[in-house]
């Protein structure tokens, strides 16, 4: 079972998320939290695979909780719950190592996909969030050049894969696009992450965007 902790200060949302996730059959919600501090303590106690973190929570907000999780429970993957109006926080969380973003009004199957993707290392962004992030990032000339230089270490096929990752495609979708098996694509993505020094797929997307 994939073990999940849900952190949100609205009880109805927390209960709804838990119901959706457990309907998947292979996901168990092992704990909930109404603030960021409790989320960290519950993560230390239950050692979940994935934590769903609301960005705006009392005591310790989602961004601060993400930083503590990265420091105290580095193995856990964090997916941020967000809504429009928190755009600057999206970039901050990505740079702090968030494994993905989903909107609170997303479809149930999208929430399940996001949790599964985070668990397997395939970071997930809701399509709306992907467009929002890319629109926010307008690289200066110097950053564009540095991004281009970093991407230059990739081979032709790796560059193609990086571009498809930047489009928000999953490994399975990339495999269908380039006519390769999903395990092969996973190997390519791992190689791209390693060569670029990126923590997750979101960083790859931002780098590709920076390079134009």
Features:
Arc Repressor Mutant, subunit A; alpha/beta; globular; 2 domains; 212 residues; Rossmann fold; 57% helix; six-stranded parallel β-sheet
Concise summary:
With 212 residues, the protein is α/β, with parallel strands linked by helices.
Report what the structure shows.
One of its GO terms (molecular function) is DNA binding. Keywords: DNA-binding, Phosphoprotein, Transcription, Transcription regulation. The protein is an alpha/beta fold and 212 residues long. It has 2 domains: 2-134, 3-Layer(aba) Sandwich (Rossmann fold), CATH 3.40.50; 138-210, Winged helix-like DNA-binding domain superfamily/Winged helix DNA-binding domain (Arc Repressor Mutant, subunit A, Orthogonal Bundle), CATH 1.10.10. The protein is built from 11 helices and 6 strands. It has a 6-stranded parallel sheet with strand order 2-1-3-4-5-6, sandwiched between helices. The chain is globular.
Strand and helix layout:
Blueprint: E1 2-7, H1 11-22, E2 27-33, H2 36-46, E3 50-54, H3 62-72, E4 77-82, H4 87-95, E5 100-103, H5 108-120, E6 124-125, H6 127-136, H7 141-151, H8 156-166, H9 171-178, H10 182-196, H11 201-210
Parallel strand pairs: 1-2, 1-3, 3-4, 4-5, 5-6
| Major pleated sheet | 6 strands, parallel
Count up the helices. 11
Q: Report low-confidence residues grouped into runs of 5 or more.
A: none
What CATH calls the topology of the largest domain is Rossmann fold
Q: Quickly count the domains.
A: 2
- SS-based class: alpha/beta
Mean pLDDT: 86
The span between the termini is 41 Å
Top-tier CATH class of the largest domain:
Alpha Beta
């Amino acid at each position: 079972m994939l073990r999940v902790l849900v952190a949100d200060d609205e009880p109805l949302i927390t209960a709804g998320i838990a119901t959706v996730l457990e309907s998947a059959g292979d996901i168990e919600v092992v704990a909930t939290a109404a603030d960021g501090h409790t989320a960290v303590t519950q993560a230390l106690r239950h050692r979940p695979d994935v934590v769903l973190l609301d960005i705006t929570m009392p005591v310790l907000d989602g961004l601060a909780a993400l930083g503590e999780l990265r420091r105290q429970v580095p193995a856990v993957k964090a997916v941020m719950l967000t809504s429009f109006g928190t755009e600057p926080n999206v970039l901050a969380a990505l740079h702090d190592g968030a494994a993905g973003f989903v909107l609170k009004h997303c479809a149930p199957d999208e929430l399940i996909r996001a949790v599964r993707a985070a668990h397997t290392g395939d970071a997930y962004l809701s399509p709306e969030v992907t467009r929002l992030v890319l629109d926010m990032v307008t690289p200066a000339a110097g950053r564009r050049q540095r991004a281009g230089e970093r991407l230059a270490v990739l081979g032709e096929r790796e560059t193609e894969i990086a571009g498809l990752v930047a489009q928000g495609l999953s490994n399975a979708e990339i495999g269908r696009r380039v006519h390769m098996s999903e395990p092969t694509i996973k190997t390519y993505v791992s190689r791209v992450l390693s060569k670029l020094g990126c923590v997750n797929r979101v960083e790859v997307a931002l780098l590709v965007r920076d390079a134009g």
